[in-house]
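re: ur question from yesterday

yeah so i grabbed the chain u mentioned. its 134 aa long if i counted rite. heres the sequnce exactly as i have it in my notes:
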Amino acid sequence: MSHGHVLVVEDDDFIRHLLVEYLKEQSALEVDSARDGVDALHCVSIRSYDLVILDVMMPYMTGIDFLDSLQVMTSDRSVTTLHELPAVIVVTSASQEQIPNGRIEERFPAMVRAVLRKPLHTDELQRHLSRLLS
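ran it thru and got these structure tokens back, copy pasting raw so excuse formatting
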């Protein structure tokens, strides 16, 4: 059983709702959600998360822009909730050719622990949750 505090960042209301409900049913997790990177930055500035499940293509601020901003926030002493970077599972509908896994993982090695493709497979997600939140 996984334990921890998770933030789901997904602009598609249906997918975000499904992910939140799945996480709450399958694990002993506290789960919050955000519609885009801007909303997610607000969440991480006021609360600490063990894991962020992050969509890449979103309006206002992409997942990549969120990750860039999160790295910068760790050096901001006024952000008291961000003592350490959360683990991140990136979720994208882009193909491996459009956004190679290695490129994201190499750019954000301190955060990105997996890149999953949509449609998500719950067994694969659960495997990563167990590994990251045990």
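noticed a couple things. The mean pLDDT is 90. also The two ends are 7 Å apart (CA to CA).
anyway ttyl
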